[in-house]
Amino acid sequence: MMKRRFFIGIAIFSMGIVIAFGISTVSNILSPFKSFSLTVDNQSDVDISSIEIGLIHMDSKELFTSPIKKGQTKKFKPKLGLSGEGAIYLKYTDAKGQSTQETVCGYTEYLSGYSTVTITNEGTTVVQQCN
Predict the structure, then answer these.
(1) Which of 31, 41, 102, 113 has the most Cβ atoms closer than 10 angstroms to its Cβ?
(2) Nearest to 116 by CA among 13, 37, 45
């Protein structure tokens, strides 16, 4: 009787792990098809005072002025309007007033997917998965 309860407990625990892993995997698989989001990880020694996200060669952009403190990470879901195809840029300004612009999605038709930008004292790294 005790062995049976033990095995039932193990089975239930195992099913929970499989279900949790399955949900996480499905979410990761679908990420490139969700509305575009941008995560900014500020690993530099200065705060970021503003973020502008927009479409290159188009008049569609959004400005975020809530600071990103050094060591902080923030996620943005810009509302951009695209007809046809385009590319998405990020322009950020640090607390010293220095601005930097990077392409964060080199090609998109659907404004979907995500990009992650890591800002350090040495520069900016962009990882993009967009459609």
Answers:
(1) 113
(2) 37
Question: Cα separation of 102 and 100, whole Å?
Answer: 7
Mapped onto helix, strand or coil, the DSSP state of residue 69 is: coil
Which positions ≥6 away from 81 have C-beta within 8 Å?
Answer: 55, 60
Comparing 10 with 83, the larger pLDDT belongs to 83
pLDDT of residue 77: 95
Per-residue model confidence (pLDDT) at position 121: 95
* Pairing mode of beta strands 113-119, 73-76: unpaired
Q: For residue 90, which amino acid is it? A: L
Type of residue numbered 63: L
For residue 24, name the pLDDT band (cuts at 50, 70, 90): very low
